[in-house]
Amino acid sequence: MTSDLEHFCFCRDVKLCNIAVLRFGSQRIDLA
Predict the structure, then answer these.
(1) C-alpha torsion angle, residues 5, 10, 12, 16 (rounded to 10)
(2) Rg of the chain on CA atoms, in Å
(3) Structural domain total, the chain
(4) How far apart, in whole angstroms, are the C-alpha atoms of residue 8 and residue 26?
(5) Which domain, by its residues, includes 17?
(6) Fewer Cβ in 10 A, N or C end of the chain?
(7) CA distance 18 to 25
(8) CB 29 within 8 A of CB 17
(9) What is the pLDDT of residue 22?
């Protein structure tokens, strides 16, 4: 799980990374 987040956080913009983590995190929690 951390690997996926870190891999997706490879983006340069921290804001975009945060938004992506929030969106993906919500989907992950929903699926879980």
Answers:
(1) -30
(2) 9
(3) 1
(4) 15
(5) 2-31
(6) C
(7) 10
(8) no
(9) 79
pLDDT at 15: 73
Look up tokens 């992950």; give the residue. 28
Of the candidates 31, 3, 32, 6, which has an alpha carbon nearest to the alpha carbon of residue 20?
6
Tens digits of per-residue pLDDT, 9-30?
555 667 776 777 777 776 665 6
Position of tokens 């990374």?
Answer: 17
Element (H, E) at 18: helix 14-31
Higher-pLDDT residue of 32 and 19 is: 19
b/e 4-31 (16+ beta carbons within 10 angstroms → b):
eeeeeeeeeeeeebeeeeeeeeeeeeee
Tokens linked to 4 = 């996926």
